[in-house]
């Protein structure tokens, strides 16, 4: 989902039901500028283990 102009956290709502989703790439989207970006992605998509080529630490 790189380069898709995702600006609102509600833009990720469509992915919340994807329980098998483990990796997301959201690079070069306005959401990525949020200082809490990684934390918010983890909260919105708890099954994700990798965000933008970096593994999630618990």
From TrEMBL:
Residues 34-52 form the U2A'/phosphoprotein 32 family A C-terminal domain. The keyword Cell membrane does not apply. It comes from the Eukaryota. SMART domains: LRRcap. Keywords: Leucine-rich repeat, Repeat. This is Protein phosphatase 1 regulatory subunit 7. It comes from Cricetulus griseus (Chinese hamster).
């Amino acid at each position: 989902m790189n380069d898709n102009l995702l600006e609102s956290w509600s833009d990720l709502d469509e992915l919340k039901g994807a329980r098998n989703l483990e990796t997301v790439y959201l690079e070069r989207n306005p959401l990525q500028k949020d200082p809490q970006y990684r934390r918010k992605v983890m909260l919105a998509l708890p099954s994700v283990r990798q965000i933008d080529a970096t593994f999630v630490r618990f």
